[in-house]
Design a protein that fits this description.
The complex is a heterodimer of chains A (89) and B (401). With 89 residues, chain A is mainly β. Chain A is built from one helix and five strands, in the order βββββα. A five-stranded antiparallel beta sheet of chain A has the order 3-2-1-4-5. Chain A is globular. Chain B starts with 9 loop residues before the first helix and ends in a 22-residue tail after the last helix. The longest helix of chain B has 17 residues. Classes of the chains: A mainly beta (89), B alpha/beta (401).
């Protein structure tokens, strides 16, 4: 929750007038709000806090931080399914 | 993704530890503010590769830990209502209130759900107009933009069945409270890197100047922490007290201006109670009055909260940097991550939970902690400044000399 997790923007779209995107966290895909990083394009990397991108980062930094968070067991939140999906908590 | 191992570069770590040892001439007490930093320090044994003069104490930078018992009991009271779907980050599920935790409520039939993002809770409210969806909005400044965005979206989409129970906490007033506390020992801070990606550096300058403490904005990886300590010690030794950014690859001086504007639109600063610490003036966010229709605290009036905390727990002193986890007689005995007694054990980010996770509760019983990274110890600490757990510390009292 506290540490941002890096992910790769796969696509961007508007939803209810807000800039959103599909973001790839090393194989786990999440819907992420990109409203505060409006310049980001598919293929680029962002640092995401609980479904909200706060900054852009470069690919090397993204890979490094992701590997570090994995080693620290700090990626659990990515396993949470969407709240309104069947089988969700 | 491409993985590169620069931050586990033992050579760079050794050079930094060496530079710290060359720079230090006197005892200094430095606090890392963020729970993520504490986790890294304990896991990699960063505190044990530092020279004996440099003592790291662990700050209250875990929002799950410091969420007040009153607020948790209020959350439980709201989540117990049959018309409510209560959404929370997973970290909050096992945090004990006065009477059990959210998981127990769920097992008794309450509709409690873990969500990845507050924005998912907004969509749930849209999909279930028959339910009152409440999101438990906790966190430091890093989760304030997503939580604010959730409220903004709910308002825009006219989702009157969505509300947030806000228990936001803020770093700068907490640092100030630590510096003002009687018996304070902290002389310099490793500032919270990701909080500053949102808020920038500007709030920390006045604190550094007023209290004469260096504040070095620091990242979360082993090398980041050694770099932060090095820069802090360098300032302390030179008699300087400035804000330095040692995490420039993520933090811009102005933070994220769009996020700061959104926070300011939705939230206002309020007094906030911290678990284990007590009330800190102007140390939290609450919803602005204009958004009262989405304020769970107003919608569900919960009174008569009587809290019960353990009398054994010393988490308040740990959170202020006055004590270490193993100073507590209950640590690893009555109090474990499975049966936490207080704030610093309830979440993995808490100082007591981090010490427990990496085996420090077993030390002093003839067993060495298993969690210290062999990489760091073998390459950095080897015959170097690798203190044992019982190595004497130089006593440091008061503020800066």
């Amino acid at each position: 929750m506290c540490l941002g997790i890096p992910g790769k923007v796969v696509e961007t779209y508007r939803e209810n007038d807000v800039q959103m995107g599909k973001v790839d966290f090393s194989g786990v895909f999440k819907r992420v709000c990109l409203e505060h990083v409006p310049e980001v394009r598919p293929g680029e990397y962002v640092l995401v806090h609980v479904g909200f991108a706060l900054s852009r980062i470069d690919e090397d930094e993204a890979g490094r931080v992701f590997a570090f968070l994995e080693e620290m067991n700090q990626l659990d939140e990515l396993r949470v399914p969407l709240a309104n999906e069947p089988g969700a908590d | 993704m491409k993985y590169v191992d620069e931050y586990r570069d033992a050579e760079a770590a050794r050079k930094l530890a060496d530079a710290i040892a060359r720079t230090v001439t006197r005892p200094w007490v430095v606090m890392e503010v963020c729970g993520g930093q504490t986790h890294t320090i304990v896991k990699y044994g960063i505190d044990r590769v530092l020279p004996p003069e440099v003592e790291l104490v662990h700050g209250p930078g875990c929002p799950v830990c410091v969420t007040s018992l009153e607020m948790i009991d209020r959350a439980h009271a709201i989540a117990s209502r049959p018309d409510v779907t209560f959404c929370s980050f997973g970290d909050m599920l096992r945090v004990p209130g006065s009477r059990g935790d959210l998981l127990e409520l769920k097992s008794r039939g309450s509709d409690v759900r873990v969500v990845y993002s507050p924005l998912d809770a907004v969509n749930l409210a849209a999909a279930r107009p028959d339910r009152k969806v409440v999101f438990f909005a906790i966190g430091f400044e890093t989760t304030a933009p997503p939580n604010a965005m959730a409220v903004w979206m709910a308002r825009k989409r006219r989702l009157t069945n969505f509300s947030v129970l806000v228990s936001h906490v803020l770093v700068p007033p907490m640092i100030t409270a630590i510096l003002q506390a009687p018996g304070n020992r902290v002389q310099g801070f490793l500032g919270p890197g990701h909080v500053c990606t949102v808020m920038g550096e500007s709030e920390y300058g006045p604190i550094a100047r007023r209290y004469g403490v260096p504040i070095v904005i620091t990242g979360f990886e082993p090398i980041d922490l050694l770099e932060g300590v090095y820069r802090t010690v360098r300032q302390l030794e030179a008699g300087r007290a400035e804000v330095e950014n040692a995490y420039a690859r993520a933090v811009r001086p102005e933070g994220n201006p769009a996020s700061r504007r959104l926070i300011d639109d939705i939230f206002e600063v309020c007094d906030r109670k911290w678990r284990g610490v007590g009330l800190i003036p102007k140390s939290g966010f609450k919803l602005r009055y204009e958004y009262r229709d989405h304020d769970a605290e107003r919608i569900f009036e919960v009174d008569d909260i009587e809290t019960q905390e353990s009398s054994l727990c010393i988490s308040g002193q740990v959170l202020k940097g006055l004590k270490k986890p193993h100073d507590c007689p209950a640590f690893g005995k009555e109090c474990t991550p499975q049966m936490p007694l207080g704030a610093t054990m309830v979440s993995a980010e808490g100082a007591c939970a981090a010490y427990y996770a990496y085996g420090r509760h077993l030390e002093g019983q003839g067993r060495r902690a298993g969690g210290v990274s062999p990489l760091i110890l073998h390459t950095v600490g080897n015959g170097f400044h690798n203190q044992g757990a019982d190595a004497p510390r130089s006593p440091v009292a008061g503020g800066r000399p």
